[in-house]
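Note to self: keep these together.
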Amino acid sequence: MNAVLTGFTARLQSLWKRDGGEDAAVPVRDWVSTSAGRPTQLQGFDITLVWVVLALMAFGLLMVYSASIAMPDNPRFAKYLPTHFLTRHMVAIGFGLVAGLVTVQIPVSAWERWAPWVFVAALVLLVGVLIPGIGKVVYGARRWIPLGVMNFQPSELAKFGIALYAANYMMRKMDARENFFQAVTPMAISLAFVGLLLLAEPDMGAFMVIAAIAMGILFLGGVNGRMFFLIVAVLMGAFTLMITLSDFRRERIFAYLNPWDDKYAQGKAYQLTHSLIAFGRGEWFGQGLGGSVEKLHYLPEAHTDFLLAVIGEELGFAGVAVVILAFFWLTRRCFLIGRQAIALDRVFAGLYAQGIGIWMGGQAFINMGVNLGALPTKGLTLPLMSFGGSAILMNCVALAVVLRIDLENRQLMRGGRA
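Structure:
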């Protein structure tokens, strides 16, 4: 019996290597247990992916508490308890985990059918947030819809929606990939409409991430290379024009280029200079957990956009390196799951998973670059870690769909149905 099972295992693994290759899949476990002498089942989901996501959220919860513990000393937050942001972040993580558990039960085929409607729902909310009385204004930006337990940010749903829609769109346009107008124009119009709504909030950072997701999926879907680079050139020109025509954005660029200039150090470059001071104080192993000075009302938004700076100050280069490696692994894993799905002829699932990889990796890259002064200051959170209820919620939902894709990939490789 063991000999039969061993032969079946070798055959299964040879088929797996032929269809996907070792680089395109999670290694298949042996069907024969050498210790017990009886068959064991293939693992149903990617447990390492789950643990990495949970570890990032748990670490983020710890650092959000550390970064926000002094907030009640600020007159604006005088009525808040020291644990106010910790409690709200725990609630957001709770909602995110429940939403993720529900989402992972939904077949990928259902998301393929719902993709256009999720994108339409995101557009409706992006319009709604601009209506006085519905959208909430914070620091001059109208980006949130109050829901009582949390403020929902429609741009986070738009990131999820564009990943679904772009993957569905490319699957439908596979035969027209070489025709510019058929393959690109409808997506370009959709992206332009989203961009106009986001710039009206304003939220240029979210638009950059959404554009990166859409363009990345178009490129991975096989759009003609010359067409792709033409679109990238148009987008870069549009971003340059927006910066040139906006005094506020232009001043931000000048402040980024010379943050220590007296003209900017106490103005547009204030956050950047204090973020750099935080990293400088952290050195190799940091000042110790809770030992940050910059979070004591020197560094604005330390628990949201500049959480990495607090990590750098308290845990040093070592702590920042761990975060970077975790996001690198997460991004690479999403791409491998996507490549595996495409090898199994599941184009929509594969492009979506790789789009989520672009989302997580791209947004983390921008946030880290802003914190380190490598990119101009932009209001983007660190995925899975920074304070923000709707961001955590949609991150969990998006990654739960990726986990479902991996689960269905494994079922197909076992000879079952997705």
